[in-house]
Write a structure and sequence with these properties.
With 351 residues, this protein is an all-alpha fold. The protein contains 14 helices and no strands. The two termini are 26 Å apart. It is found in: Cell membrane.
């Protein structure tokens, strides 16, 4: 194969990856439009888009007050929360699996979500929290998610930040915080326990523009740092010794990437609760679609995570309407069969 043929083949592969990115963007916009038009108020897609375009071109579009209120105060915050949270969880899952070189690694299996669940349960069941008012639960969830991650990083650093020590430390933290949450719920009042359990399932009902802005701000800060480190992730996939021989400080890079991922996940789960399977399934689909190059895998995992979460939320809102199911349960229902299908149909090893 000549050099020109190799270059043409490489450009063709890059073109396919770029096309897939635009396909995901179009799909997210389409699902978001459908989701925004569905609800207890009977509004058409045109009324929804008219309300959105009115903010950009007020002289050309005049939506009704009902469409404007439903779109901007109720539906769009929920949709954008699904997009930014799904994007963040997808990226976090991709980084976690690449850093730990384990296809089962995710923010949930590493105990970060369990730490957030314990913090939220502590605030709901006992009223003990580092914050007050509207941030009573959120503050505790964020603090204990970070605490859990720092314990994992500390234990890993003490024994050498290898993938095996991080995974074992994460599993230990997951079971520890899950056990403490169960003990709290055992002694809690019935209504408080019900609220705590509902929070841990994961939901987008608590969405608002300020919360979306906070997650978007953290995502904007974390994503460029992760993408800058993506070439190091590619080298680490060949083995720690190979990466070190090529100039990568493997231990330092692994701790930095896990710290950034921890901050991102902690920020998301403290607002949404525990939403599983997004950070596990999205990176797998991504590697099947675009390969293992993390320069593309990171943003594609994020887009796929956003599409999966917004789609799951649409199903949660409509499957038993007007009852809205928790989106965390829907992602588990969707994720489990998809994951099993991928295992059964996989024809090649992409790790």
């Amino acid at each position: 194969m000549t050099k020109e043929e190799v270059r043409n083949r490489y450009n063709k592969l890059i073109g396919k990856k770029v096309f897939f990115i635009f396909f995901l963007l179009f799909s997210i916009i389409l699902v978001s439009g459908i989701s925004a038009s569905m609800g207890s108020a009977n509004l058409s897609i045109w009324e929804i888009y008219s309300s959105i375009l009115h903010r950009l071109f007020p002289a050309y579009f005049e939506p009704g007050w009902l469409a404007d209120v439903c779109t901007w105060n109720l539906r769009l915050p929920r949709i954008f929360m699904g997009i930014v949270a799904g994007f963040g969880l997808g990226v976090a899952g991709c980084v976690t699996q690449a850093v730990l070189k384990n296809p089962l690694a995710s923010p949930y299996t590493l105990g970060i979500s369990s730490g957030a669940g314990f913090g939220a349960s502590l605030a709901i069941l006992t009223g003990i929290s580092v914050a007050g008012g509207n941030y009573l639960v959120i503050g505790n969830a964020f603090l204990f998610a970070l605490l859990c991650s720092f314990i994992i990083l500390g234990l890993s650093n003490r024994k050498g930040a290898t993938p095996e020590t991080m995974i074992l430390a994460g599993i230990a933290m997951m079971y520890l915080f899950a056990a403490m949450t169960t003990i709290l719920q055992y002694f809690g009042e019935a209504e408080a326990v019900k609220e705590a359990v509902f929070w841990t399932v994961g939901d987008l009902d608590r969405s608002s523009w300020p919360k979306v802005t906070i997650i978007l701000g953290i995502l904007t800060c974390c994503l460029p740092l992760l993408i800058i480190k993506s070439p190091d992730l590619n080298l680490m996939a060949a083995g720690d010794e190979t990466a070190a021989s090529l100039g990568v400080n493997v231990k330092h890079t692994r701790i930095i990437l896990m710290s950034i991922t921890t901050l991102l996940v902690a920020c998301i789960v403290c607002f949404t609760g525990t939403i599983g399977f997004i950070g596990l399934v999205a990176p797998h689909f991504t590697r099947i679609a675009v390969g293992g190059d993390n320069r593309f895998a990171l943003p594609v995992s994020g887009l796929l995570g956003a599409l999966l979460l917004t789609s799951a939320d649409l199903v949660a809102r409509r499957i038993l309407a007007p009852i809205i199911l928790p989106v965390g349960a829907i992602t588990a229902f969707m994720g489990a069969p998809l994951f099993l299908y991928m295992i059964m149909k996989r024809k090649r090893e992409y790790w």
